[in-house]
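anyone else get weird line breaks when pasting these?? whatever heres mine. first is seq + C-alpha cells for prot A
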Amino acid sequence: MLKGVPNIVSPELLKVLMEMGHGDEIVIADGNFPAASIAQRLVRLDGHAIPRILESILKLFPLIRMWQSR
C-alpha cells in the first residue's frame, strides 16, 4: 500500500491518473454507462460507489481540493 493513496485506487487507475495531461478527461460512471463501446481506456472499479471513487481520486489532486475550499 502506498502512503496517502486510498486503497480503492487500483494500480491501473493510478497509472492512468498519472499519465493524464492538460485537456484530458475522465468519466466516473455507473455500470449502465456504455463505456466499453466508447472508452479509449477503461478502468473498472466494480462494487464501489461513485461518490467514494470521486472522493478517493480528489485526494490525489491537492490543487483541486484547494480550489474547491474557496
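and prot B, same format (seq, then C-alpha cells)
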Amino acid sequence: MEDKLLIWKLNRGNKEALCRIYEKYRDDLVRIAAGLSNNVSIAEDVVQEVFLTLVHSAGKHEIKRNLKGYLTSCVVNKIRNLNRTKVTQDSVSLDEVEQAKSKFKSPDELIECDETSQQLYDALYQLPYEQKETVILHVQGKLKFREIAVMQDVSVKTVLSRYNYGLNKLRSLLNGEVEK
C-alpha cells in the first residue's frame, strides 16, 4: 500500500516520495545488480540510471506491477544490456558488496561467514548467466518464479528448471565435485 502512495506522490512531483523509494530499495537493487554484473561500481551506476529514469518518467506512465518488481526488472534489463556489450567482465569480491551483519557475531564467526560468502560468490560466478540471474532474483531479490518468468520472458517451468539446475550446480561446486 505504501508503494502505491509513493508512486502517486512521485507522479505529482513529490521529492520526498522519490527519497523514500530510493532509501527503501537502493541496497537490494545494488546487491542484485552487483551479483549479476560482478562489479559494484557498475551496479551502483545501473541503480542510479534506473532511478534517474524513474524521475524522468514520473507522471508519464503507470507502474502496473509492484514497485520493487518494476525497479528490479529495470535493473536486470540494464545489466543484460551491459552484458551484451561485454562491459561487465571484471569480477568483484563480496567484501565490496555491503552485507548486513549481525551485531552479535564473534570475530571468528564473521571470518567464517566471510569465507563462506566468498565461496558462494565464486560458485555463483561459474553458473550460466540465466541460472545465476534466476537464483539471485529469487533468493536475493525475493521475487516469485512467476515474476521472474515475466521478467525473463519465459515460462514458469523454464524458470523453475533454471533455478533447480543453478542450485544443483552450486551444490556441486560448493562440495568440490566440479573442477573450477
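btw re prot B: The CA atoms of residues 137 and 151 lie 10 Å apart. The chain has a mean pLDDT of 80.
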